[in-house]
Amino acid sequence: MNRSYNSKDPPDFSLVLGGPLFQLLARSHLTTPNLDLMKLRIFFFSMFAWLPLLLLSLVDGKALRGAGLPFLYDIEMHARFLVALPLLIAAELLVHQRLRLVVGQFIGRDIITEGVLPRFKGVIDSAMKLRNSVVMELILVVTVFVVGNFLWSTFSGMGKIASRAGTTWYASAAGSGSHLSPAGYWYSFVSRPLFQFILLRWYFRLFIWAGFLWQSSRLELNLIPTHPDRAAGLGFLAGSSLAFAPLLMAHGATFAGLMANRIFFAGAKLTDFKLEIIGGVAILLLIVLGPLLAFSPRIMSAKRTGLREYGVLASRYVSEFDLKWVRGGAADDEPLVGSGDIQSLADLGNSFQVIRDIHPFPFSKDAVIQLVVFTLLPVLPLVLTMVPLEELIMKLLGAVF
Predict the structure, then answer these.
(1) How much is the pTM?
(2) Are the beta carbons of 372 and 280 closer than 8 angstroms?
């Protein structure tokens, strides 16, 4: 048996510490095995993607003017490289720390018993092998350059703005097509692929996490129906969803930038995006919380077993209690006051109620609300496009006072 699984240290599980890009960053002294130098990585990637665009736009005369959409007015671009990209990089440390502890809880709470431990270790090793796959990261690179270019040119909100403005900092209309500016070439072949690769890499990590959870849910788990978390002991899994909060905020920032460009340069209104906002939040919640539902059948099975077993225990206890205290079975010198029987009956009733309150989801409503808030937080400033700041402040003060 692996010694690390017998110690109190969390298992050697990480969605972040592996893969060709991580190895490259380690050799370049941009990261460490403990994911130190996070601020340096954020600065490096953000400036590598954003700063050349600014400099080339300045040289080309399209930073402040000279185009229907100058670079410094492109809110989506700044949100993507100065907000979303740093959040995607910062999320690595939080995900690494939180998920390692979450996986450790399977052992710390004896949900994974000693007999199942070797199989659980195999599930972890399988996930780590996939995380380190060179082939998968090469597939992500190819996807970015082949599929990414098509999606950007076809569905990007920036492309629609360009068609209206005639020229932007990255391209100008040329007959039936467009001509890329120097900044446009850097954006098309460096900045955008970099951002999309890091984003797709996160989707790949979420896929690994979902596979780990699904395989773990198929193991023989030692679930306790009377556990106070109302999830048979699996309530700790809710902490894994909050670890992905920066990832959801990054999506919110990207979407907010896209909407801002449409609002300020294409005459759209925030209310025009109601369905997109609702659908986007729903999809992100499904991506983060959906994998946890693999444990729902096990939780409900534990609930049914608990109701059956504790139901038998309760019936036997209340029968003996009734015989002793109601039907005169107690000794004449045994007082009712001070007896622990009534307290035991109450404790049994509380345990039975805990089992009845078990819900099928290993996360709470509060966790869902928190994730929604994190996702929509970058979108909140756009409310000012609908309501002036002064009016909004007065309404908030009126609601408070």
Answers:
(1) 0.85
(2) no
Residue 70 CB neighbours (<10 A): 18
Q: 137 in a domain, yes or no?
A: yes
Is 320 domain-assigned?
Answer: no
Q: Is residue 103 part of a domain?
A: yes
322: its two tokens: 């009734």
Helix axes 341-356, 296-321, angle to 10 degrees: 160
| Other beta carbons less than 10 A from residue 47's beta carbon | 13
pLDDT in tens, 54-83: 999 999 999 888 888 899 999 999 999 999
Total domain count, the chain: 1
Give the DSSP H or E segment for 172.
Answer: strand 171-174
pLDDT digits 0-9 by tens, 275-317: 999 999 999 999 999 999 999 999 999 889 888 887 777 777 6
Q: Which domain holds residue 200?
A: 3-226+236-292
User: Is residue 288 assigned to a domain?
Assistant: yes
Q: HSE on the CB side for 142, CA within 13 Å?
A: 6
Provide the pairing of β-strand 171-174 with 177-180.
Answer: antiparallel
